[in-house]
Amino acid sequence: MSVTKAGLASDRLRALGLELPVLADNPYYVDHRAVDSSIHIAGQLPFKDGVLLGQGVVGRDVELETARELARHCALNCLAAAVQAVGDLERVRIVQMLVFVASAPDFGLQSRVANAASELLTEVLGENGRHARTAIGVAGLPLNTPVEIQMVCTAV
Hints:
By secondary structure, this protein is of the alpha+beta class. Helix content is about 30%, strand content about 25%.
């Protein structure tokens, strides 16, 4: 995988036909919390314009490619939370990403789902998008969504 370095992250995001969403406020938790130099991003679901883009279990109800697209939306929502925290996409550096995939017991491709989110982060942020990562299969996620992503980032 080659990491894009030229240009601004905001320009690369637009070139992909994407824009950062506005995250809805939640009365029970915040989308990010800074602790020293780390910014912890709450688990983000694949919402777009207030609509959950998918439900079900990967490998049973949800195809791999659909799950990968949902993971990209989760990562985009994480980026929006990171920008809320640091003020500018150009200042975001991803440290760690945890990808939860609601998957059938015999589905062993959680890392392929997570790769779609990792690819988006490096396409947009270049070297600042490279990160440590864990992808795990779980029995279920909130609202029966197939994918949820949590991140730790820092400002550069």
